[in-house]
C-alpha cells in the first residue's frame, strides 16, 4: 500500500489518498501437454488485479505465466 499526501486547499488540512497495490490471482491450471511423448511444454497464468473503485498503487511483482516440461518420455520406435 502506498500513501501519498495531498494538500486540501479548501480547509488547509493535509489529507491522504491511499493507493492500493495489485494482488495476484491464484494460478490457473496447467495447460494440457500437446504431445504424448518426446517433450512438450505446459503453461499456467495468473492476473494482477486491483480492487474496483480505488486508486491503483504498485503493480504486482513477479511472473504472469510459468512454463514447465511435460511428456518428456521417449517416443516408441525412436
UniProtKB/TrEMBL annotation:
<dbReference type="Pfam" id="PF00090">
    <property type="entry name" value="TSP_1"/>
</dbReference>
<keyword id="KW-1015">Disulfide bond</keyword>
<keyword id="KW-0677">Repeat</keyword>
<dbReference type="InterPro" id="IPR052065">
    <property type="entry name" value="Compl_asym_regulator"/>
</dbReference>
<protein>
    <submittedName>
        <fullName>Uncharacterized protein</fullName>
    </submittedName>
</protein>
<dbReference type="InterPro" id="IPR036383">
    <property type="entry name" value="TSP1_rpt_sf"/>
</dbReference>
<dbReference type="InterPro" id="IPR000884">
    <property type="entry name" value="TSP1_rpt"/>
</dbReference>
Amino acid at each position: 500500500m502506498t500513501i501519498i499526501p495531498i494538500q486540501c486547499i479548501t480547509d488547509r488540512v493535509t489529507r491522504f489518498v491511499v493507493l492500493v497495490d495489485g494482488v495476484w490471482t491464484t494460478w490457473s491450471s496447467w495447460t494440457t501437454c500437446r504431445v504424448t511423448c518426446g517433450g512438450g511444454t505446459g503453461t499456467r497464468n495468473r492476473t494482477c488485479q486491483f480492487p474496483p473503485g480505488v486508486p491503483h498503487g504498485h503493480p504486482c511483482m513477479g511472473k504472469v505465466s510459468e512454463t514447465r516440461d511435460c511428456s518428456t518420455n521417449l517416443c516408441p520406435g525412436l
